[in-house]
TrEMBL record:
InterPro entries: Homeodomain-like_sf, RNaseH_sf, Tc1-like_DDE_dom, Transpos_IS630-like, WH-like_DNA-bd_sf. GO terms for molecular function: nucleic acid binding. It comes from Natronorubrum thiooxidans. Residues 189-335 form the Tc1-like transposase DDE domain. It comes from the Archaea. NCBIfam families: transpos_IS630 (NF033545). It holds the Pfam family DDE_3. This is Winged helix-turn helix.
């Protein structure tokens, strides 16, 4: 009685064995590739199809298939063969047109829209393609191409022609250098600005509970406002601030006097003041006043539109998020007390901000969005 056809004999080269074993060990290998590699390795060890099928919990037909394909074409035989099917319904030109429509501003086609949805892209495509793809097909194509015409992000083009020249020294300071020399422990960086028009608004609030967040009444009563002038020591994270009713030069000068009288600043070899171009500390007059008052001061004014390079803005963002948003203040005095209390809380355990933006990042930004002359 015949025992049936003998299984195909496999002999592996050292390279083939090494590659197949690597596939079986690699954590990123697909289960499919690892399974086929194990079939071939076991076959090369002399196991017959029945033994391999039992070992890998599969059928003899499966073992015979991959054993035979490896014997015929080697490693390439373990890949999936091209599958039969109907030809594509739409050619590349249709897909290219859909992509072009999605990547255009609606105004280019005189559409009264600010952005395009999948339905809008399909609406335009119907007028230009005889056999137009369905919205679901268009959605699948755009997803594959990572195109989302219904989303938008805002950005601001630099408008100061000397943006790079003014911003670079500030970024160098944040990264520990000044005029290509390392800063010392006796150098202090102060980032100062004001947060204006902080409103005292009284409204009803209810505390959070299980399954519910804190609720804040949309309607509110106005009780005036104030300005918070503050300075941040970029090295220690400490904040020195004052709440005032008016954002005046005189008020800001008093803040400077308080900061410069602090032992850290009075004992420093150099104190770098980083400011924007606000009226309370305008570069035309404030630099002269500051240098006249203090011999150890260096003043750097940020370029116009460059307030985001001032680290005090990071503190203002934290203050707004944690102490002001959703708050209720029955008077300006109560609002000022909240701001001052948060400053005390912050300074109890101050943390300097980890600044990672560099001059190279700035150069890349200006390459993408050159300044407007």
């Amino acid at each position: 009685m015949s025992s049936g056809p003998r299984p195909v004999s496999l002999t592996l080269t050292a390279q083939d064995r090494s590659d197949l074993e690597a596939v079986t060990r690699r954590a990123t290998s697909s289960q499919r590739d690892g399974f086929r590699a194990r079939i071939v390795l076991l076959a090369a060890e002399g196991y017959n199809n029945t033994e391999i099928a039992t070992e890998l919990s599969c059928t003899r037909k499966t073992v015979r298939k991959w054993r035979g394909r490896f014997a015929e074409t080697g490693r390439a035989g373990l890949a999936d063969a091209a599958r039969p099917g109907c030809p594509p319904t739409y050619d590349d030109s249709v897909r290219a047109l859909i992509t072009a429509i999605a990547c255009e501003l609606p105004s280019k086609r005189n559409l009264p829209l600010s952005r395009l949805s999948i339905t809008d892209v399909h609406m335009v495509a119907v007028t230009e393609i005889d056999h137009c793809p369905s919205p679901s097909t268009i959605a699948a194509w755009l997803k594959q191409a990572a195109i989302k015409p219904w989303t938008c992000t805002s950005w601001k083009r630099p408008r100061d022609p000397e943006f790079a020249q003014k911003a670079a020294p500030v970024l160098d300071l944040y990264n520990g250098t000044w005029n290509d020399k390392d800063l010392t422990e006796r150098d202090v960086i102060i980032c100062a600005d004001e947060k204006t028009a902080i409103k005292a608004r009284a409204r009803h609030r209810s505390p959070p509970g299980p399954g519910t967040s804190m609720r804040v009444e949309h309607e509110y009563e106005r009780h005036g406002g104030c300005t918070y002038q503050a300075a941040l020591n970029a090295s220690t994270g400490e904040v020195y601030g004052r709440c005032v009713t008016r954002n005046t030069r005189a008020n800001f000068e008093r803040l400077v006097e308080e900061v410069m009288s602090h032992p850290i600043c009075s004992a420093a070899d150099r104190v770098f003041w980083i400011l924007d171009n606000g009226s309370a500390h305008h570069p035309n007059t404030f630099t002269w006043w500051l240098k006249k008052q203090y011999d150890n001061v260096e003043v750097l004014h940020l370029p116009k539109g460059g307030s985001w390079l001032n680290q005090i803005e990071l503190y203002f963002a934290v203050l707004t998020r944690k102490a002001l948003t959703g708050g209720s203040f029955a008077s300006v005095v109560e609002l000022m007390h909240q701001i001052a209390g948060f400053e005390v809380l912050w300074n109890a355990v101050p943390e300097p901000f980890e600044w990672t933006y560099t001059t190279k990042d700035l150069e890349k930004l200006l390459e993408r969005h050159p300044t407007i002359e």
